[in-house]
Amino acid sequence: MLLEAIYHRPKSNWAYAYDERTIHLRLRTKRDDVERVALIVGDKYAWDRTVEEIPMTKWISDSLFDYWHVSVQPPLRRMKYAFRLEAGNEAVWFVETGISNEEPKDSIKMFDFPFLNPADVFTPPAWVKDAVFYQIFPERFANGDPGNDPMAVEPWGGEPTPKNYFGGDLQGVIDHLDHLSELGVNAIYFNPIFKATTNHKYDTADYMTVDPHFGTNETLKQLVKACHERGIRVLLDAVFNHCGHTFPPFLDVKEKGADSRYADWFHVREWPLDVKDGIPTYDTFAYEPIMPKLNTEHPEVKEYLLNVARYWIEEMDIDGWRLDVANEVDHRFWREFRDVVKKAKPDAYILGEIMHDSMPWLMGDQFDAVMNYPLTNIINEFAAKKERDGASFANALGALLASYPQQANEAAFNLLGSHDTVRLLTLCDEDKQRMKLATLLQFTLTGTPCVYYGDEIGLTGGYDPGCRKCMEWDEAKQDRELFAFFRQVIALRKQYEALRTGDLTFLFTQENDMRLAYERSLGSDRLIVAANAGSEADTLDLPVTSRRWRDLLTEEDLIADNGELHLCLSANGFRLLLAQS
Prior knowledge:
By secondary structure, the chain is α+β, with helices and mostly antiparallel strands. It has 14 helices and 30 strands. The strands form seven sheets. An eight-stranded parallel beta sheet has the order 20-19-18-15-12-11-22-21. Strands 3, 4, 7, 8, 9 and 10 form a six-stranded antiparallel beta sheet that branches. Strand 8 and strand 9 form a beta hairpin. Helix 12 packs parallel to helix 13.
């Protein structure tokens, strides 16, 4: 055994409470190096009377490591534990003080899970696992009230630019809720809706007021109420890392300089405020002079923003916040933010925009989830861009899932495109079959899927501003066949709990092979996803139990013959199969 590859650490994603009774433990070993792992566990205050041995399961792998998993329910919510690893005739024991060839005589040097305190359990809202989100960029979704149009508004459907307007507003969303209900989504994520000077609204001028071009605070209240009547949750965008250049405290600082009472609300490196060689003398989002960074450590800034977070939940009944540039705000602020939000609405969803390893924010004291851009890349690199083979797909996904606790994976915000990326259909070179393949993977993997507005009817577009074009409401110009496919996969995800919370097992992956297959299972339900991202039709033989299977996408019945299922897969093709007794 390669001892250097063996790893475990108490707490974080290696040892954590899944619920108020259950503890999940994980262990890492070199890939294909260890044959068996057993957990040796007992109560530290009564070790000899309580010690037991529980086999661990090889849960998932990446290119270098295997990850072993076990669930434990210690009777008194505390435990000491060690691992016994076996390969051939070799056995070693892994305890907190290291690895030994000798079995430990007692629990003194073992790993310790001192006590499962309910207050420490990371518990994302239960409804999120069952949600299908729909992202709306308000200025481009629908113009429901021409009376609040900006000056020089352009005809709907024109070419988007970074600065033009088409009149999209909240009334337009209200007018088209039937579209969302027909699609089957049950949650909306809105890009910013508060008063600002740009069409994207990420330069907030007034955090307490809906932008007049979108409507009024009362319009938002009506929208939230209408959504809730349809069973649709509402998530708003919180831009708390920075404000806009017309935010009153920043205007005061521009006028009065260091003498302003708001001078410490911002991070000013040099007075007066200026831009030198393209770099502001004050901290900003990126290098944007119109987006000065807020000092969230300042008591008054903190009080102001936490009041904003509370107000829109209490007054408008929104269901949570998406947090822009979340990784550039201090952790202490987010901990207090969570306390305020969860007190106002315990099942509110707190979603952070982070595009890298996010474990520091997913310990149960800050966010419920992050925008799962690593998964975006894994799926798109396999299905859309064909840059990743089946083995690489499985390895990357394995590493990603092993990085976080199970409940964080279940609540992760899985997207294939957004207002910041190339449209999915464009990424697929307008190959609709590749887009469908990517979407099927998105909807059958762990986490909460999100559809970017218009993807379901075939909108195209490159990077901003191309990805922010107007929604097409003329059904004659919509891809209704694509819409029907989105409806189908959304309905199937909602119908089968195994696709939302079931175990994930890869059945087929190989290097230099664009085919893959995995199973989602929960109780007696077993579903198989088989995919071929190759440019040629191919077949795939899977070892399965001899029983009848049904293709949920075509309603074709299949019989497993001699424990093997023979599948035909078209180029960029896929199958979603359900085992039937």
